[in-house]
Structures are given as C-alpha cells and as structure tokens.
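#data-curation
PF: Archiving a pair of folding outputs for the training set. Convention for this channel: one message per protein, sequence first, structure tokens after, nothing in between. First:
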Amino acid sequence: MAQLDLQSKLAILADAAKYDASCASSGSSRRDSRGGKGLGSTEGMGICHAYAPDGRCISLLKILLTNSCIFDCAYCINRKSSNVRRARFTIEEVVRLTLEFYKRNYIEGLFLSSGIIRSSNYTMEQLVEVARSLREEHDFRGYIHLKTIPDADPELLSQAGLFADRVSINIELPTESGLQRLAPEKDGGRIESAMRDTRAAIDDGADAKSKYKSAPLYAPAGQSTQMIVGADTASDGDIIVRASALYDRFRLRRVYYSAFSPIPDASAVLPLKRPPLMREHRLYQSDWLMRFYGFKPAEVAGAADASGMLPLDIDPKLAWALKFRESFPVDVNRAPKEQLLRVPGLGTKAVDRILSSRRWRNLRLADVARLTLSIAKVRPFITTADWIPTLMTDRADLKALVAPRQQQLELFAA
C-alpha cells in the first residue's frame, strides 16, 4: 500500500464509510466534562449527523479504520477483488483525528468501522484499542459507536462494550440464502450468536449497575444492525418479518436499512439497477409501525401486494387501511388508543392530544382538524360528534382522494 498523508487517508476512508447507515446516537448515557475533568460530551470531510437523547442533532466523525478487506462479499465496494484505492489509519491517527476534530468543535463523537485485515481478531483488537485509548488515556467523554466483527473472539466483542456507547453487528442481508449466495464467507448463525452474547452482556451490565454504582457502563446506547435492501431477491415482507424477529430476540435499538447501490466491476449475481430509495423509506415507516404503533409484523406485511412488496406511492399505514377497510371508521370520542393509532394521518402525538381533549368534551371534526396535520387524510377513516363518512370509506376511488399528490419540484423555484 502506497504511503499516504493523513488528509488523503481521511478522504478515502470517510468516503468508504458513507455506505454504513447505522450511526445514530440516541439512547446514550450522559457524560460531560463540566467540572474540569475529561474531554468531550455526549450531551452537549468524514462528519455525519446523529441525534442525542435530548433530540439535538450532533456531529460524528464517521470513518473506517481501513477499507482493505480479506473478504469478497459481492455487494461490498471494499471487497477483496474491488479495484478501489486503499488506505489504512493507525490507531494513533484515529485517536488524534477524533481529539483534534472535537477541539475544533467539528464533532461530538466517533463512529468507527473497518474492513477485515489479517484476521477478524486482529481487526477487532485495533478497533477496541482506539476506543480504549480515547477513554482511558485521553479521558474522552464524547460518543463512541463501534461496528464490531461477529467472527472475532467473544472476549474482544465484550471489551468493545466497555468503551463504546453503542455497538453494532451487521446482519448484512435479510435471508440466509441471500447471505450464502452473496457473502459465502460470512455465517448467519455466527452473526446472531454474537448479537445474542452482546445482548446478554448489556443485560448483565445494566443489572450490575442497578446494584453497584461503581459498576462500569456497558454499551449504554445498546446495539443496532443494518440490512442491505435490493441486493438479493428478498421481498419487503421478508425484511419486515426478519427485522421484527431481531427486535424481539435481541432487543435492538434500531434496524437500519441501506438501499443497495451498484458498484464498479460488480458480480453478475447482483442487480444492474439500485432499488428505488422510496423502498428504503417505506421500510423505515413499516419499522416505525411495529415499534410505536402496535402493528404486528404479519399486519404490516399484509399491506404489501401479492409479490410481498410495499406500495411506493403511499405509506404502509395508509396501504393497510385501504386493504382492511372493515376496521374503519373509528370513533375518535370512544375508540381506545390502539385503534386510533391505526388511523391514517394520526401520529402518536395527535392521538395523545385527542385522548386528552376528549376527556373534557365530545370532539367535532373541526376539533380533530386542529389536532392533526391533514384532516383530509383522516376524515374518511373516523367519526366525530358531527361527522360520519357514510359510504366514503367504501369508495373505489378512496386511494386517489387520500394519497399525497404527485408534484414536480423545480430546482430553481423561487
């Protein structure tokens, strides 16, 4: 590998890290340097944006330790056979970049991943050493997210959680068959085993912390994972069911979806075109329905068409409502929260406002309009003290009435 200066390495390895979507920082514990001790705070070229527990948008230095890799996963731009420019940071360079970027007020934390060099254990040792050096040698109290390697020794994975706020292990692809076809060097069972061990370590750490104040925090922001969408033949229904199982079994903070992007000199087994970015967006919306709206995976998957794909022109909640119209209309003055959350156009905040307001009076359509963003989308699916949709819910053209209008945007519009 040719000798590169630090700026050249940063340009290469920050660009290589852009394919990793899972860099949010929500759920981290509070650390700060007020009082004169330590450096950095989790509350308070290579920079990404994430969200702190209080909702603030914060900046992270998002880089790879190296984009060299001994694996040859067909979908990865950094695979062994890929003709890309390679670079590698030393541990000291990553530590120095993190501290200098923080002192210049560019960032508030670090997101660090890596290709596999020499072996999984060797690479994992390097990642852990970066985090350890920042925490113990420099008393860095900012946010650290480490992307761990499931093939590494469990003891190394355990050490990662002692220094990082969040750890993540990529599940890579939604199905085992897709993983075997596109990344035969990776083992789905080993990936899940590593996620299970991490979950157990997080639980043990939380239990110890509840009993002993001096117990160290262990990955206080939990663990997450990421799936590539569109590289294999998995349908949206397959992805939804897989994501739900991961949430249930490992209590993940997030499952991230990354739309497959065609890469140079790609394998013939990969699709020639990337999936629509709207597909990625609809999967995030379906994820939200399961996590915050009480939908079961089978119900969300039920909104898909015969091929298992969610519609791209309307959101999954509206698609479900149009497909299962017998569940509507819903009486906003009497229906429980679980039913109100299924009404298209009603978010969690709007439902809470409705539940609070109806304690004092019977709500009319105008009242609901003041509590929501779009009464036109809500109206066909509810009844109020002065409104009954009569046959509106059964209209054949209902989708056209409630679907968002397609609008051509202008780049230089006033």
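PF: Second:
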Amino acid sequence: MRIVQLRYRYRVYPDAAQRTALAQAFGCARVVFNDGLRLRQQAREAGEKYISDGDLSKRVITQAKDTEERAWLCEVSAVVLQQALADLNTAYRNYFASVTGKRKGRKVAPPRYRSRKDNRQAIRFTRNSRFKVLDNGRLRLPKIGDVPVRWSRDLPSEATSVTVIKDAADRYFASFVVTTTENETLPPVESEVGIDLGLMHFAVMSDGATVTAPKFLRRAARKLKRLQQDLSRKEKGSNRRRKAVMKVARAHARVADTRRDWQHKLSTAIIRDNQAVYVEDLAVAGLGRTRLAKSVHDAGWASFTTMLQYKAQRYGRTFARVDRYFPSTRMCSDCGRINEKMPLDVRAWHCPCGSHQDRDLNAAINIKAAGQADFNDRRAQVRPGLVPAPRSEAVTHQNAARATRSVAGIAVP
C-alpha cells in the first residue's frame, strides 16, 4: 500500500455575509504576511540577525492583537494568520535554497508583498481550526459559517486541510488535501509510447496516433477581443469598468477551465493505455518568449506533462523526460543518422538510407527509444513514492468543457 496525497477542488457558493467574512479573512492574512515580510526586511537592512519563525509569529500575531492598529486580527481564525506566516516562511526557505544551489530548477525570487488587487486571494484552514464537512454537505469554516459546496465527487478520506480560493472571475473554491493509503495501481499493460508535442498537432504518438491541437484561446479570440474593446472604453474607477473587467476574467477562466478539463481526459487515457510514457523536456519558458509565444501558451504543454507525471506516479506507471537537446527530429529512426537542421515548414524528409520520415512521427519514435534506453541504463524501478497534491486536481465547473472533440486516434472518455 502506498501513501498518496491528493487535492480535490470544489466550487463553493458563500452568501453575502460569508463573502464579507471571507474578504476580511483574506485581508487579515495578507496584512500578517506583509508585516512579517516587512520586519525581516528591516532587520536585514539594519544588519540584525534573521528573525526566527517563532519570534516572528509572536510579534506580528500575538503582540499585534494587543495593539490598537491590529486589534481587528482577533476577528478571524488564528489558524488563517498562522498559515499566512507559514507561507512566508516557506517562501524564504525556497529562496535561500535556490540561492545556495540546494534547490534545482529556475532561480526563485525573494518573497514579495501581497496586494489586495491580486487576482487570486486564498486562506488555509488546518485540522487545528476544526473545519468540518457537515452531514448536509455544507462546509463549516470557523468564523465564516456553513458554506454550500457543489460536490462533484466524494472525498476518499478525511481532509487534512482546506484552502478557500477566490479567483479573478470572482468564483470561490474549496481545495481539500487528503492523505490516503488506497492502492490505485492500474493493471499492467504491454504498450509503451513516446510523445512528440507540437503546435500543428498537439501530440503525435510513436504508435502513429495523433491528437489535433484544440487551440482553445484562438477559438475564443474573437469574443475576448470584443470584451477587451468594451473594457478599454470604460472610465477608470467606474462600476461599469469593474463589471467589464469581470467579464474579461470570466471569459479567460472559461478558456482555462476548458483546456484543463480536456488535458485531464487526454492524460488519463494515455496513462491508462500505456505502461510507460516518454516525453521531451521542452524549454517552455524559452519558447514563450519567441514569436510563437501565444500558440505555445495556448497549447499548455507544461501543465499537460505535469498531469502525465503525477498520474503515472499515482497509478503505478512509468514516466520519463528525454533531454531537450536530444536530436529527436533530425535523427532517422531507421538508421540513426543525424541530419542537418530543418526549418519548421519541413514536415517530412528523406534520409540517405532511403527511408521517408514524417517529422513528428519520427521524433515520437526517437523519444520512445531514447526514453527506454535511459530508463534501462538507470535501472529505475516503478516504485512511486509520495504523490504530490497538484494545485488543480480537476475542473469542477459545470460548464467547463462542451466542445472538446478534437482527438484523432485516441479514445478519450
């Protein structure tokens, strides 16, 4: 049995009084975070030693509640304030680990101040706050009330924490983190697949199956353009401008929800039908700064490969990334010859060995071969450890996806 940590997100519908209480909690958590960040920055500028986590909590929460300027911190749950400081401490640790080289990947910037104008506001309740899912399906939050929840599925076990999120489209979500030992390993299958991600085709499989690029943002571009034009005509600071901003945010949220829902269905189908999945480690951040940036962001390769990775861990499959400098496109999958670089408009080419290669299919075959070779060389074992809880486990918006039938060669549920 494996210990698995999962995140389940549901839409919640607080009433007017609960929205006010949530706004107050968002504000208090933001103030505590900013106060803690300010104290540490002032200590650094003054040449003083780093303020410990315990001392910081005492100064910005316990002692601050006794002052006239911060007396209103008593009106929200203390756990919300403590978790805000926990986020600050985590941000500092990630920054220090990045600076010292202990943290791999891109460099992490130091913590920044939170703003009430941020598109996303969130607070977190842990078990210490005694939040509870009631028998009538409502979520009881301390000093907030009983909030209605739209349950799209059951929680597999008791939640260890819940995060209440307000997004840019003025929607509220409850994100539960649960820990379970349920064994969800899928029965083994023989097939393995290499995937070449692209723009003309979202994915080309080594077995010849292709997935047409849905281009959700491109399809919604006409509506988004009209909404942006309406927004530009509104006077700054007016109620009409605020309503126009909300319409734009909701349109973008619908695009993101539809893309995420489609990617979940496709990634689940791929993991279910293949014992091992190999993809190329694309430099998405770099491609996002080229003339193809809009198409790259619309494709959502990073989120899709992340879904493949954690679902492979969850269901006992193998997932591996092939080095981004591997010449998967230029290498002939028949003879192994590496040819000259080809422009993007060349979709097929002839190898001197006499074979005719499709650009994307040839790359997918090479990715599969390279992934299998690297996997065998490392003698890796399929023994997934603790599965992380991704930020958005699934889309639960009732109108998330209506027209997503753009898959060719793959049966997606």
